[in-house]
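Putative phospholipase
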Amino acid sequence: MSIHFLLLYSCFIQFVWGQLPPYTGQFGVGTIDIEVPINPRNISNYTFEETGEPVFLLETVLFSTYYPIDSDIESSHPQRPWIPRPLDLVAEGLSVYVNSSNSSISTDFLTTAIQSLAGSINISAIVDAPILDSAAPFPVLVFSHGDVALRAWYSQFCGDLASHGFVVAAVEHRDGSAAATQVRRSDGTTKNVTYLLPDTISSVTNVTDITLAQRDFRQAEVVEVIKVLQNITSGEGTAIRSANTRDEGETLDGWNGRLDLSTLLVGGHSFGAASALQTLSEAPNGTVPAQGAILLDPGKQSGPLNTDVHIPILMADSEEWSSIPFNFYGREHFDVLKDIAEDAPDETGGGWFMTLLGTAHTTITDPSFLGGQFSAFFANPEFNATLNSSDALAQYIRVSTEFFHLVKNGTKDGVLAAEVTHPNFNEANETAVDDTDQNITRYWEIHVAPDSSQSETNDTEPEDSPNDTDNEDEEGDAMRHVVQYVNILVMSLICIFINL
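Tokens:
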């Protein structure tokens, strides 16, 4: 038996037996899937070459809520699978993407691989539990997934934020950037949306135009999701439950007044960060009444980035994203992000740009938690992540919590209270580094921070939450882990067959 077989089989065993870890905050976490119909409309005029049907027809919006609950609650509902059903649809979408890179993997084989390796993994949150009864309503984040991803693949980040006293609405985008998703209409019919390839669209002359159309579609979805959240916290939870084609939400009637939409943030990862950044042109007084944005690794191949920002922004790069040069429309991507943060007006809160050391582009996603050696197969060969997933998540949650506090109260805590330590990546201001708490500098390089005189500062660790008291195409290169994920699924399944 070869060493290669043993290594692959070991990875398989770790992954099959692996489950996502519990959340780290003081609260339990509930989750509700919500899909409701909206007024159907075309976001663009693109049609599919083969069928003539519209590519960007918006009919419903789908999102998963993660929210604080009593930690003693148990649910009679089954846990939510980490890989959404139907599995063969997810396999079809992944195979479309993988086979676009001159591979040849059948949907049937990939379905079997996914079922064998990930079919038993569940999200840690409790389905349809009552939201926590607290003295104050909960701040809200509307979060967008990256390219070739699914909303469920960020369940650790979203759920952990909820365990610290926030509500997160993780949107499943139907713009063709998700690996696969199913639209469920109110009449009982469905429409499958798999990963979108530009060569399936009529009259495409510039792939960037498709990317921008996808971002427009995503922005329209975010607007509609915010409307649903407004309706829920205004006492219309029962009506939303009745309209929900996902057959969940029996506890939504208890959400009246539970959401603090005066502290509404938008955010996302990779392509999701780029699309969230686009929505800021409508904030805070337009169709997106967001008061801040959390942007993780804004996309390098997600089209030109919006620079029209009038609210506080937190941009947190992984070390992989900051350290590897990338020509972004004639400039370094790092420099573009730095300019966006620096140009965010101090009088409206300003901008932060920082790097979490030791992290890869995929560290924020769930696969990094699913088994020791398995996670190594997701790595970019050009970059070696050194910070373990739990420590990395703790830092992402820390700085996100501090940013929520800034938006709500105007106070700067912890990392946000620190000055610039590294004007550029790996280029230290030694005096600033020496003056900054080592519990910050061991994890973070801070590249941009607003003038500290603009708001009150507080160097203490933040509390869990205000409620504690009661260039041009898709993001395929950026999300390369999907191909590696599929390859490992396939290789591991082959190993099982060999061993039979």
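The chain has one domain: 3-499.
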